[in-house]
Amino acid sequence: MEHVVVFTGAGISAESGLKTFRGEDGLWEGYRVEDVATPQAWKQNPELVQAFYNMRRKSVLAAKPNAAHLALAALENKKKVTIVTQNIDDLHERAGSTNVLHLHGLITKSQSSIDPRLTYPIVGSEITMGEHCELGSQLRPHVVWFGEPVPAMELAIRVCRQASVFLVVGTSLQVYPAAGLLNEVPMDADVYIVDPHASELQIQRPVTRIARKATTGVPHVVDQLMA
User: Fold this and answer.
1) The pLDDT value given to residue 19
2) Which CATH superfamily is domain 1-18+65-104+150-227 in?
3) pLDDT along the chain (227 residues), means of 10
4) In the chain, where are the structural domains located?
5) What pLDDT does residue 28 have?
6) Which of 2, 54, 81, 149 is deepest in the core (most CB within 10 A)?
7) What's residue 171's pLDDT?
8) What are the Cα distances from residue 208, in Å, to 30, 99, 222?
């Protein structure tokens, strides 16, 4: 069966009202990335980092899947679909996608601050200071911060090497190592890029560029793939 691998970034979630990773001013929700998204920030001020992600989590829970998420979920009715996402929200799952690999973690989970393999579902929307894992360490967001390894990268590479169709949605292919996944896709695979700035991306292989937002571009491609 044709294997469609979809690689999604912040652009697909932005249309559900979730802000992209950082603005033109270099800030993320008004904070310097170095202050809320690094192991050093956690060590220096865990209360601030925890509060920041609690706020982000509430935004995620209030957001709803959009037409792009729903189209990708519907594609499973006709094709084998694997979604590899840089996003930490659960909108793909809530839209109905069943095979989603989160490269950078999932904000609706917590993890041990000493063993990232220990993860837990979050009851409600907050992790509180004083909540501990089974090893006795403070729980933190299940999010890969700058400077941390990406545990799911090896699996993502294997998935991309199996793609017969590779669909890129809402990412500028600038954040590494994730952006390098395109290089793992077989040269005989059909590659589509859906992004308002698709025509500006420097890509050294044949691709079909759809210069649209995710909510219109993804249903367009999905209709073609399901025809």
Assistant:
1) 77
2) TPP-binding domain (3.40.50.1220)
3) 94 89 62 91 97 95 98 97 96 98 97 96 95 97 94 96 97 78 96 92 90 97 94
4) 1-18+65-104+150-227, 19-62+107-143
5) 67
6) 81
7) 87
8) 36, 24, 13
Architecture of domain 19-62+107-143: 2-Layer Sandwich (3.30)
Residue 104 known to be catalytic? yes
Which residues, including other chains, have CB under 8 Å from residue 136's CB and lie 6 or more apart?
A: none
Rounded distance, CA 171 to CA 50, Å? 26
Element (H, E) at 167: strand 165-169
Radius of gyration of the chain (CA): 18
Secondary structure (3-state) at 119? strand
> Which element (helix H / strand E) includes 67?
helix 67-75
Q: Please tell me the distance from the alpha carbon of residue 83 to that of residue 190, in angstroms, as a whole number.
A: 16
Triad 191, 172, 56: Cα angle to 5°: 120
CB 189 within 8 A of CB 212: no
Catalytic residue among 3, 104, 132, 220: 104
Residue 165's closest CA among 139, 193, 138, 201? 193
